[in-house]
Amino acid sequence: MRLIRRADGYYAQFSIHIDRNEIREKTGRAVGLDLGLKYLLADSNSNFVLPPKFLRKAEKRLKRLQRSVSKKYDQQRRKNKQRQSNNYHKSRIRLAKQHLKVSRQRKDFAVKLARCVVISNDLVAFEDLKSQNLVKNRHLSKSISDASWGILRQWIEYFGKVFDVETIAVPPHYTSTDCSDCGARVKKSLSTRTHICDCGCELDRDTNASINILNRGIDTLGRREFKAYGDEASMLSSGPLGGVSFICELGICPDSSGRASKTTIVVAQFAKFELDHRHLQ
Ligand SMILES: [Zn+2]
């Protein structure tokens, strides 16, 4: 057991090693996912998930709290090696709580979405994005980190192991330019939202990309019996976004390869203790 301090209290964590396997009916379906900015996720069945933008919604509040923290910080006290005022510490904790809330919302969303995608398919293919490189682009950085691709991917791989679903990351090159129907390379700018090819193929650019991603995934794994284009198959129609039932969702511990492992350490958090601010300074 260990004790953890969060902005809103202390938590006792208990870790147990278990091998989590869940029974799941094969669906014979496969899906490709394109992760993007306009849509957090577009799949090969023309489903779209908008980014939740938790951070942006909370941003105004965060900014206000941050200002209030800075205002209460006293340089003079610092020079004299005095303790900062009670008001300073109070507003510092308010800010930390708001950050904590955003990160919990983000994780909650990723867990539910990942589980939903995984249980409705036998194969999930997605782009092997190096989001670290993308985040360096300052214009895009906020949306990208907000979209929480990394967390989503981690949970997709985790649930893939739990539900015995193939998950595969494919190289992202040319997935948005190549025609998913005939393979021709159709150049388009970032603002071109529709893929239109001479072969008659016309699709949303992200749907086209996700079909390419799926095809690459299937190529990589070897041809198997996957219905690449599910008829009414839709990851979102197959169950409500929610119902995560097991305490395991509270935490994943990556194995030595850095990937989520099926034999994961289950972390259950019990017993939140009331926080006494005086102990935190
Ligand atoms: Zn074409």
Your description of this structure?
- This protein is an alpha+beta fold.
- The protein has a domain at 1-170.
- It contains 7 helices and 10 strands.
- The strands form 3 sheets. The protein has a 5-stranded mixed sheet.
- α1 (54-72) packs antiparallel against α3 (86-119) and α3 (86-119) packs across α6.
- 30% of the residues are buried.
- The model is unreliable at 227-281 (pLDDT under 50).
- The structure holds zinc ion.
- Residues 179, 181-182, 184, 197, 199, 201 line the site of zinc ion.
Question: SSE layout and pairings?
Answer:
Blueprint: E1 2-6, E2 9-19, E3 30-35, E4 41-43, E5 48-49, H1 54-72, H2 75-79, H3 86-119, E6 123-127, H4 131-135, H5 138-147, H6 149-162, E7 166-170, E8 194-196, E9 202-204, H7 205-221, E10 263-273
Parallel strand pairs: 3-6, 6-7
Antiparallel strand pairs: 1-2, 2-10, 3-4, 4-5, 8-9
Bound molecules: zinc ion (ZN).
